Amino acid sequence: MASVTLIFLISITVLVVVFLLFWALDLLKSKLAERSQEKVRSQSLADNTQHLDKKPLIVPIRNDLELLRREPFASNIQECLVIVLSNESKTAGVCAYLNDLEVDYFVEDFPPCCQRYPNEHALRSFLGAMNTFSDKWVYAEAVTYLHNDFDLIKSVNTQGTRHARLVGKYEAKYYYRVIPQWTENFVCDNIELEEYWENMVEFTKRLLKASEFSSPKLWKRFPLNHWKRKQIFFKADDFHQVPHPGAMDNIRRQTPNLLPQVQEETTAVLVPID
Ligand SMILES: *[C@@H]1O[C@H](CO)[C@@H](O)[C@H](O)[C@H]1NC(C)=O
Questions:
Q1: What confidence tens digit (pLDDT) does each residue in 200-259 have?
Q2: Is the CB of residue 248 less than 8 Å from the CB of residue 240?
Q3: Residue 117 has what pLDDT?
Q4: 79 burial class (0-12, 13-18, 19+ CB within 10 angstroms)?
Q5: Residues in contact with ligand 1 (CB, 6 Å cut-off)
Q6: Contact 137, 176 (CB under 8 A)
Q7: Which of the listed residues 90, 116, 205, 218 should we mutate to test ligand 1's pocket, taking the one with most ligand atoms within 8 A of CB?
Q8: What is the pTM of this model?
Q9: Which ligand 1 atom lies nearest to the CA of residue 208?
Q10: Residue 261 above 80 pLDDT?
Q11: What distance in angstroms lies between residue 198's CA and the mean position of ligand 1's atoms?
């Protein structure tokens, strides 16, 4: 009887030992896997950020590490970064589709009729770009929209204002969400990308000022110069999302490569009738 008990005890002990051994092996294996993954991640991040200042890093969790290494700007959700600037006579903007790795941009003089109502140039450029791009923003999870007019951004961000309602209409119609921010003081969730955003803003300022906005020299400074890029043209309808009194002038633009140098301009002339 005693030997049966002994055998029973021994076999239990053996089972427990074997179990513990397997468990320890498993643990070791997963620890090793974790460490090698960490190595890959920190390596790719180091590559990414060599040229950035030594800021604390937020590690984005993604599957496509390789893509992220090559394209820190890329996103795996439908997401856009838009920067629009304007003054009384001119507007320029850049829209980066972070999921498709594509860029649209525009540089436009306001038509003479709109320049006669310069007070609303900021809203005119803001809504003009929204009207132009909305078709492509459908279902975008986040459209981060930077504009240089502080008062406009403040108003768009305040519930119940006319500006907030206007922007809300586009959001509801095209199912996207705009995050309006000021170009001079924006919040970027991803600290790693903050400097890229700043460079994008700097570039858009150059674009607004440039006389030769298609020159390769200018675009060399564009952080996403290697992405597919397309110039977009405002239509009369885009400029007039903010209506003004009086007739609408035809749009006149200088586009060195794509259109004839100067398009016909027909200005409504008031002829006194007697
Ligand atoms: C708007 O900016 C452009 C480019 O810097 C400049 O040429 C133009 O004079 C500005 N317009 C006004 C009204 O300040």
A1: 999 999 999 998 888 899 999 999 999 999 999 999 999 999 999 988 888 766 554 444
A2: yes
A3: 94
A4: middle
A5: 87-90, 208-209
A6: yes
A7: 90
A8: 0.70
A9: 4
A10: no
A11: 22
* Statement: 77-239 belongs to CATH 3.30.420: yes
Residue bearing tokens 């909305």? 134
Q: Is-contact 182 126, C-beta < 8 A?
A: no
Both tokens assigned to 250: 């035809």
What is the best residue among 88, 89, 107 to mutate for testing ligand 1's pocket, by most ligand atoms within 8 Å of CB?
89
**How is residue 163 written in tokens?**
């500006």
pLDDT single digits (tens) 127-184: 999 999 999 999 999 999 999 999 999 999 999 999 999 999 999 999 999 999 999 9
pLDDT band at 266 (very low <50, low <70, confident <90, very high): very low
Place of tokens 């609408």: 248
d(CA 91, CA 89): 7
Half-sphere exposure of 75 (CA within 13 A, CB side): 17
Residue having the nearest C-alpha atom to atom 6 of ligand 1: 209
